[in-house]
Amino acid sequence: MKASKLSQTRKGFTLIELIVVIAIMAMLAGVAYPTMMSFRTTAAQSAARKQCLDIIMGISSFKSQYNGALPLRTENLESDDNNQIVITTNYGADANLLRVLTNRELDEEDMINHERDVYLKSNLAEGPRDGLHENEEGELGLFDPWGKPYYIIISDERGGAIDPYTGKATQKDCIVYSLGPDSDGFPVAQDKPKNGRKNTRMTAAQRKAALAAAAEADEDAADAIEDNVYSWKKTK
Questions:
Q1: Is 38 within a domain?
Q2: 145 lies in a domain?
Q3: Which of 8-12, 120-124, 140-144 has the highest mean pLDDT?
Q4: Which helix (H) or strand (E) holds 211?
């Protein structure tokens, strides 16, 4: 009796066919992964920039309503060399800014936000990442999508706050920035070596070393500007 064609039909895949399918899937995943990561990075940068702008708008709105008063406690803050106030949104380092802007002040007798308005909308997050978080000590912190606090520079000087990466005046009384995904872009402009040509007492070797250090500082600043997120610059 002859075997039916149905019984002779091959079922499943051979080992070679499975290897080929797996290789194709791996190749497709390898092509798609960089695109997906790039999309996630861009989305995170957009979210961080929006948060930077929200902080700026909150401070500006408060100042407008309270005749130029700042929404923070300045009595324990010291200005830097450029006569600026520099704070971060890390736990306890914001001079009560977050509680004032989000209407979460605890001491009603010494309240700054008398009207109890909300200038910065932000729900409490479960952890210190991408939002407002309260630690076990009851201190508030506001963190970017990479889990780092935002940096805030406030100035009442004529030229505005100083760009911490270029050392130039921004013509803005308040700037906010995030260190970005790798957190390597710390401000370097204030530590930039002076050009060796301006010091005639330096030897040729010393001038060369100073110029090389200045060029390296410029490169570090350029990398920082590329990686970080700002309230006063357009982010790529």
A1: no
A2: yes
A3: 140-144
A4: helix 204-227
In-domain check, residue 218: no
Sheet holding 151-155, edge to edge: 84-88, 151-155, 174-178, 229-230
3-state secondary structure of 6: helix
Task: Tell whether the model's pLDDT for residue 4 goes beyond 60.
Answer: no
Residue 100 belongs to what domain range?
A: 45-180
Beta carbons of 230 and 49 less than 8 angstroms apart: yes
Q: Are 71 and 62 in contact (CB under 8 A)?
A: yes
- Say if residues 225 and 176 touch (Cβ distance below 8 Å): no
**Alpha-carbon gap, residue 145 to 127, rounded angstroms:** 11
Domain count, the chain: 1
Confidence band, pLDDT 50/70/90 cuts, at residue 223: low
Question: Tens of pLDDT along 25-46?
Answer: 888 777 766 666 667 878 888 8
Which residue matches tokens 């009384």?
Answer: 173
